[in-house]
Every structure is written in structure tokens, then in C-alpha cells.
Amino acid sequence: MRISKKFRLGLTQPSLDFVDVDTRNDTKVFISPSALATVPSDWGNNCVHLIQSFFRQVLGLIKAGKNREAEELLLVLREPNETHLGLSKGKSQGRALGKGSARVLWHALSTSEAAKSGLLTDLEDAALMIEGISVDIISDMTTNIIRGPLIEYTQRMCDQHGIPTTQGVDTGPLWDSHSKLWVSRLDRLPLTESGKLLLVPKAIVRQQPDFDAGEYYRHFLITHMRHAELDGGSALVELLKNGRRRVTKKALVEKYGGNKAAIVRESLKYPAALREYKESKEAKKRPPLSLEKIAELQKAAQPDWAKLLDDVVSLSPGKDDADRYEKAVEALFTALFYPALTSPVSQHKIHDGRKRIDITYTNMVTAGFFRWIAAHYPAPQIFVECKNYTRDPENPELDQLIGRFSPSRGRVGLLVCRTFKNKALFERRCRDGRIDDHGYIIALDDTDLKALVKFRQENDLYEEFPLLRSKFQKLID
After folding, report:
1. What is the number of structural domains in the chain?
2. CA spacing 20 to 30 A to 380: which of 52, 235, 243, 360?
3. pTM of this structure
């Protein structure tokens, strides 16, 4: 039974920011450290900081010969069953990490030339150079290290969706980057028949690892090894009939080996290879899983765009359905704009609670329209105000949204309403606001929502949103 059904959320995976996992079995995806680096928020930055702090502390102890202290830090890592992510078959059992495998990990790190030499600098480097370290172990280590931020995220999602939580639950080990120690506390978490539950943003999970030892060896490291053989005129060099010289991959693997020990040895000779590999990963980061791919992995139905749209446009305009309208818009936009916009916050309080924003999204700056916006205008967050009016919004509604803008939060927002009797007039008001340097407001009504959904259904490059781009262009022309 998935979280959405167990807690009767009335929402399906496309409208949920977190992975809608089965509360007993694992969903076969992993938390990716590289993906955390793509989350442009304080939450994402904190996760990256914790991972770097822990890994550098372990490596620093190993380099200093303090193997016992390093081992003690690693032995705290345990099976993170509470996320229900990974490769376990049947009931979640976190098979990647346990006391025995953590000891093996410590031994592998403490005896590795990569760790001692400084070649190993990031957690995901271990997947390239340490035998036995695979994507599931990297994911489990990451989950343990960022458990604190995951608890914070879980609490926020529970409050937003009305998922019951229990006070006084043992959090398990939490990495403290200040003391460089594991700590624990009692906190508020949801419980299921399988125990405590941690929710994970779907934007940070992947199906395949970002770092792959075989890929690094075959396409980067071997290139440097081949050039060295050619420059030295070694016995591996073959002279072809056309006069060209070559060194085959097969010959290099036969001479130097193809395991991780060989990767470490040759990487120490050619450190530029690792640098080039990591730069290539940075330049072309793996995007979040699409809604369609997540549905396929979960063996669930594909997004029901018709229902998501109908849940908005079928509501009667007016105050009676104002709350339902806001929730329906959030459900639609969370699906429609994923993965560009994530981590929705309903009734977001600012100015010590004196002002609220109906919905605030984090701009992931992945591709298309929202990436273009972020490259040219202050848009780390995108604000949405929902007006289930029987009349046209006017200047007070514009002023309300403008009052939520700031250079740090962002200055781009969407004002969503049912219809306009004079749409051109309202869009001119939005343009006047831009001219007066008050920010950028895109007005959308039911007709626009239908066009956005239609485009999403019919196009693979759905993050482009040409309707939004054309409306924004009118603001700046």
C-alpha cells in the first residue's frame, strides 16, 4: 500500500513532491548525491554540506592514521529501511549496509591508495575506486548522512498533506557537521506497520548511478593510458597497413588489469583523467526521473492529465470553493511543472507570518522556460496566487503578489484565476508593474490551463512551455 492510499491523501504520484513508496516494499530507485547538488535551495545546500563534511572527516582520520576513529564513524551507518528505496525484494530490509559491510567499507577505505593519496575526494568517487562499493551502498550512506534534512522535509510534507505524525520517535543517528560526531534525538515522524517513515523528494532519486567505474575506465582513463603507450613506443603499439599506429583497449586491459585496483593505480599516474570525467558529469548532469518513468517503475498508471485539469476547471467560482481551488491548482502545477518546479509550500509564511503566499515552488533550473527565466531574472522561487473569483482580478490582487517578491526570494509569479472579461487590460496592468520594476506576473485563466495541459500531453520537450514564454515576452517587450 502506497503512502497516498494509506493516509488517504486524495492525490497520486504526479501531484506529490515525494516518492509515493510502498510502505512495506522497496521502490527500485536511489538517492543520488549528485542530484542533491542540483537542488538550488538551503535544504539542498545543507545536504551537500553534510555529505562533504562526513566523507572528509572519515578520509582525514584515515590519512592521519586514526583508523579506529574512522571505523567508529562508519559503523554507525545502518540499513535505512524507513525510506523504502533500494534493491530489497519483498519487505524492505536495507541489504546494502549493515555492521559487517560497514566494517568491510572501512577496511577498503583504510587500505586504499586512492583514499591515502587524496585521489578520493567525493563520496561518489568511492564507486569508481573501492571494491564492493556500488550504487545501493552509496545511496544508503547518503540517506544516513542526510537523515536530519530528510526528517525536516518529511515533517513539512506531513503538515502540508495532513499525514499524522507521532512525537517522541527515535530519529536514529544524525550527522552533526559542527562536532563531527553522530548524535540522535526524539522527534516527530509518521509511523506505519513497518516502523517510522522518511519521505524523499522525487527530484533527488535516480534509477542509474551518475558515476560508473566501467564508463570512467573505458572512455576516459584508457585514453590517457593509450597516449602514454603510443608516445613511449611500447610493445602494445600495432602498426596498421595504412601506416596508422594503434593500441587496443583489450591489450591495455590485459597488461594493466580492469578492476578497481587498476583504476586507482592508473588514475594516480593520470589524474587529469578523473578530473575530465567529473567535469563531464558536471556539464551533463542526469535529469530527474520523468513522471512517466516513475509510474513505470512503480507499475502504476500514467499521469491522468484530464482529471487533474478537470479538478480545477469543474469547481464553481467563488469563496465557497476557494480552498479546494487552491489545492486543485497545486495538484495540477506540481505535476505539470515537474521537474522544473519542485518542493511546493502551501500558505508560505513570510515577514514573520504577516504575509502568506498561496503556493511557493523551488525553481530547479533544469531546462526550458524556467531555466531561461532563472538565467535572466531573479527567480530562485516561483510564486503562485490562486483567485477563484467570479470577477476579474484587479490592481489589489497584483499588489498582493508584488508584495511577496524580493531579490532573494525571486520576482516572478503566476496569478491564476478562472476567467477574464478583459484579459488584455489585466495583462497591460502586469506589464505596467514590470515597467515600474515591481516584478514579473504571468496571468493564467482556465483557458490557459487547458492549453498548458494539452501541450504537456502532446510534446516530449514539455518543459519549454511556449505559452508561458510568449506571455512573459509581452511583459518585457
Report:
1. 3
2. 52
3. 0.90
